[in-house]
Amino acid sequence: MNRKPSIAQKNVSLAEALDILKSALDRKTLVGMERVPTAEALGRVTARPVVARFSSPLHHCAAMDGVAVRAGDTAAARKDHPVSLAPKRDYVPVNTGQPLPEGMDAVVMGECVTQGEDGHVLVETAVLPWTHVRRIGEDIVATELVLPRRRKLTPYDLGALLSCGVWEVDVYERVRLAVIPTGDEVLDYTKRPNPSPGQVVESNSVMLCAMAGLWGLDARRYPPASDHVETLSRALERALDSRAHVVVLVAGSSAGKRDHTKGVIERFGDVLVQGVAAIPGRTSLLGVARGKLVVGAPGRPAGAVVCFEELLAPLASWLSRQDPPKRRQIPMYLTRDAVSRLGMTEFLRLCVGRVGLELCAIPLAREVGLVSALTRAQAVTRIPADREGLARGDIVLAELLVEPEELENTLLVVGSHDVILDLLADELMRLDIPLRLASSHVGSAEGLDVLAREFTLLAGTHIFDPESGDFNFPFLEKHLPRFDATLVNLAVRHQGLMVASGNPKAIAGVADLTRADVVFVNRQPGSGTRILLDHHLKRAGMDPNRVRGYDHEETTHMGVAANVQSGAADCGLGVFAAAKALGLDFVPLARERYDLALATSNLEETRIDMLLHVMRSEAFKAKVAALGGYETVWTGRIMYAGMGLPGAGQGAGD
Description:
alpha/beta; 40 strands; 25% helix
């Protein structure tokens, strides 16, 4: 195994990486031809031109139900002077597809024939030769080219081939993949494990094999290989000795796996590309071993997906002599800024919905380890390597990941996070015409700003104004005075300090947040929860700088709760439902009103009408109440300035 590896090119563009591998692989030797039954060849690519064995149709045949005749015998036929034809001698009954009887050269449709005496028929309309007749070879003639080489076979192609006697067809082999997950920390999902701290259930290999299957590749998942050079080498050698054309080593989630992967590949071949100028997917490796393509896929899900979509898919398509998979592209407005790294192509995943007459796209979280951004995305756009990002309001060309109709039935919600949004999303999908709710959690203030710019249909908001004791309207009047908004209540919710079960540090209120032994986890600036916290700190005369963890931010209530549950923080401000979901204790702090804001001009929109119907239903209200920490007396009700909270004299500070 001792050999001197070639020098890999580092951080090349995606296009350069593809060119390097195409030059290094012997496609003709690697992926050969095979003969398969025509009936089983759907989606395969023809390796040779296909010619007809016999003609279609094989004989002159009737194209209509009726009677076969000699056209000349009908020449004198008129409506008021029909021609009488004798059976067998002058006509023969035929059905569609039936061979034309000898001596006959036309067909009269059955509806143009009337029955006479002694089996004779009367024809009132003259016909020309070959009327309603399919002549031999009209469709396909024996020895004629039916399909060219490098044709991806469709269901229609299979029908055409069989109709002209092609029982088997020569095609290129289906590209076979061996996918090997690696890493000491990954657990085999087939054993249904319960992960301990530092361990993860391995899922990337299943996701990648499923993607390959959609492209028509034959992917096989191998059991996870531990992160040891000899173990990885044995796993790679086993795959190289198999019938696979491509071997994929999927890295684990911890640091350092790329070094092992590169070294192991170089035991059997060469790493030709070490890293590409793309985010995510930057740590992808490409090489050749024993004439086969070897891919080192990043361990983080988003990086692994880009590696597969932008590198493996084009190379596998090239190996199988077909065009790479393409998605429909549609222009849309970006709702938020997206800063990017110069010199790197970035793939930005988006939630998309129609606002007015335009499609608007919400950039999703860009951490490469997040699976949620992959499952929630409806489109993806590229930030070119020569740009440092995209700005809110830019028109971007995005590739659709869903059918275009889904975008028309999507409600965009930008603003504050609430657990009820997930419940509402599920209820909307239960409708006869399902509505998809796509949300981005950026905080109440930014959500209202995005709404005023007409980049979202709805904004979730719960901004409390201490001077008036009201919610949301004072902010709109102060910061967006020219925007005509309608607010609909989603729920009145209970906010408080989420603490570990049993409240081991005896945290009783905001005053405890400055204790030296208390670590806090906060929400992002502009969120209603952050504004609520700052209000209570100010009212208590407390300096936020004295709160340990004040700058540690999460964008959702569940994110805050997860930090407390894991012990990363001792407490955080959030809704009761989030604490309940993760088994935390809850120290009540305030009641507040969470509203959905929308442009008044959209109030009569069909999607909004469907939304309000769901929100106002007793079934939905009952499910909200069951979450705990919510009041639904105003749910689905249009709000007006000065309403505050239900219950006299009760404000956010009570």
